[in-house]
Amino acid sequence: MNTPTEIKLPTAHVSLLSQLDDTQSGTVSTVAYYTLVVLVMLSLWLFHLRYPCLTLSGLKNFVDMLDDMVQTRIDRGETTNFRDSVDRLQRQINDIDHEQSTVIFRWSSVHKYLCSSVITLWNIAKCYDKARVLHVSILEAITNERRAFEYFRDNYCRNLNFEGNRRRFRDEEANDMV
User: Transmembrane residues, as ranges (predicted)?
Assistant: First the structure.
């Protein structure tokens, strides 16, 4: 007699159950694989949103645009302290470029190449962060300059209107007295 723990199933049922287990484990591994792929793609997409300049050439173009903005302000006769920051960023870009040019891909040192590529990407991201901070500072300076000019212009126009009204009032009083 069979005890409750020793129930014997026919061999056809055992093979069917093992096939179901194989199918379920295959499905689980496929779902895990696709989930991992989706998470990696999502993280890369978010990283790219945060750092649109992931290449050295893109970073150079962004810093060159900042350099043009600073040069325009200097050409207008404005004193800025942004020139030093732009020069510092350009030196960092040159350092990154030099580091990147010294690394040569060899199959024997794939690990070293990948590590140096990740370090280069990290340095580009840090330099991009500094460039964004500088960009915001330049835009704030431009905005403050425009606000100051508009404030001056508005007050100047108000004073002209006030003086014109005062003169007109005096002229009317003088004509009334005559």
Answer: 31-51
Same domain? 46 vs 74? no
**pLDDT tens per residue across span 21-32:** 555 566 767 877
Sign of CA dihedral 63, 67, 69, 73: positive
- The answer for residues whose C-beta is within 8 angstroms of residue 58's C-beta and 6 or more apart is 52
Same domain, 133 and 152: yes
At residue 172's C-alpha, the angle toward residues 168 and 173, to 5°, is: 120
Predicted TM-score (pTM) above 0.70: no
Burial class of residue 66, CB neighbours in 10 A (0-12, 13-18, 19+): buried
Q: What is the DSSP letter of 76?
A: T
Per-residue pLDDT reduced to its tens digit, 33-86: 888 888 888 877 877 777 777 788 889 999 999 999 999 888 887 767 898 999
Domain hosting residue 10, numbered range: 1-50
Picking from 92, 36, 46, 40, the residue whose alpha carbon sits closest to that of residue 66 is: 92
